[in-house]
Amino acid sequence: MEGDPMLRLRIFDLNCWAIRYLSKRRQERVRLIGDMLRREGFDLVLLQEVWSEQDYSDLKAKLGGCYPFSHYFRSGVIGSGLCVFSKFPILDTLLFQYSLNGYPYMLQHGDWFCGKSVGLVIIKISGITFNVYVTHLHAEYCREKDAYLPHRLVQAWELAQFIRHTSKAADVVLLGGDLNMHPEDVGIRLLRGWTGLQDAFAEATRFEGCEDGCTLVPNNCFTVKTELLPFPLGIRIDYILYKAISSFTVKCEELKTTTGTAPGMDIPFSDHEAVMATLYIQRQGQAAGAGLGTAEPMLVDVVTEARTEVGVGLRAAQQQRYSKGRMAVLALLLLLLQAAAALGALAGLAAGQPFPKLSFSLLAFLAIGVLLLATGLHLFHTMEVKMLQGTEEQMRMALRVLQEHL
């Protein structure tokens, strides 16, 4: 009711950059993160890129006294890297793996092997039901020629749909994670417009930290400086987003980011700066609307822009499917020609002609390898085409509904 005391909630979000055997000074940084979390005593901790379950176990053992409840989301080949630590009981969990997540043959990027996902934990604090989402979307790598933009837009759309369809029984929705998108990017505008989520940085009464709230900054010793040359201040790609669904209001009183090295150390916690938000939740006299709000005309433009980019990705995937299918057919024809040539050579043995076994064997192995690889890639791009077609169709239907409401 009106006048009810406010609930204060402190949230910590960090992309930990904790890849076993690869990340620099990983174990030391995991220990520093654990020490800081014990010292600060946040209510909720949302972590990404904890791909080593041993690191999660170490953190759980270290934080058990402060955060008695936790959950690790398993997905993909090496894991989603997502985990949550909470001071409050976790009532339920759910994991949704995105349908598109890069390409398995792009080994230098490796996003496909992570099984990028969104994890949901449901907690109840002082009678208020919270749906807490943690996610990590596909990285950008090259802003000028972003080959992964259609996949990341599919992920943003699926994330928005997942939140909308799973949060109807919640009082408050919280989303934290590395979204790998700038605040003005179409994916962020699509996610926020479709869900009604508010950006803690934009809404915060007080802010302290890196300029413009940037979370990937040039002066971090672990970042690749050349990738940030167009952005001298850095970029903001890590977020805490929130909204109230029922008869509650949520306000961000304070937002902070870490700045530079860990206290008393010569290294930062990660290649990303952490985001820390203090939210105040209060019950109101009447229920808040859970619809798309009054920004539908603008949302039509956003969905149209996103659908256009997905269409570009769809045409590229169709071209890839065609080229890999053609390669498989050529490899098959090569095998058939080899078989015919081998039969001719065997027939010529009666005339005393030698049979070049080594040459035929090497060429056959090469043709079989190309056939298998091309067939596998053709099937992969066929699935990619279907996922992009499905998302484009969903966006088309959403546009129709939005336009009918105008």
Describe the structure.
With 406 residues, the chain is α+β, with helices and mostly antiparallel strands. The chain has eight helices and 13 strands. The strands form two sheets. It has a seven-stranded mixed beta sheet. Helix 5 (186-195) crosses helix 7 (296-348) and helix 7 runs antiparallel to helix 8 (357-405). The chain starts with 6 loop residues before the first strand and ends with a helix. It is an enzyme of class 3 (hydrolase). The chain crosses the membrane at residues 328-352, 358-380.
Give a brief rundown of this model.
It is found in: Membrane. With 406 residues, this protein is of the alpha+beta class.
According to CATH, the fold-level topology of the largest domain is: Deoxyribonuclease I, Chain A
Task: Work out the oligomeric state of the chains in this entry.
Answer: single chain
Number of individual domains: 2
* Average pLDDT for all residues: 91
Following the backbone from N to C, one meets helices and strands in this order, namely EHEHEEEHEEHEHEHEEEEHH
Which helices and strands appear, and what pairs or packs with what?
Layout: E1 7-18, H1 26-40, E2 44-50, H2 53-63, E3 69-73, E4 82-86, E5 90-97, H3 111-114, E6 117-125, E7 128-136, H4 149-166, E8 172-178, H5 186-195, E9 198-199, H6 200-203, E10 206-208, E11 238-244, E12 248-257, E13 275-283, H7 296-348, H8 357-405
Parallel strand pairs: 1-2, 7-8, 10-12
Antiparallel strand pairs: 1-13, 2-4, 3-4, 5-6, 6-7, 8-11, 9-11, 12-13
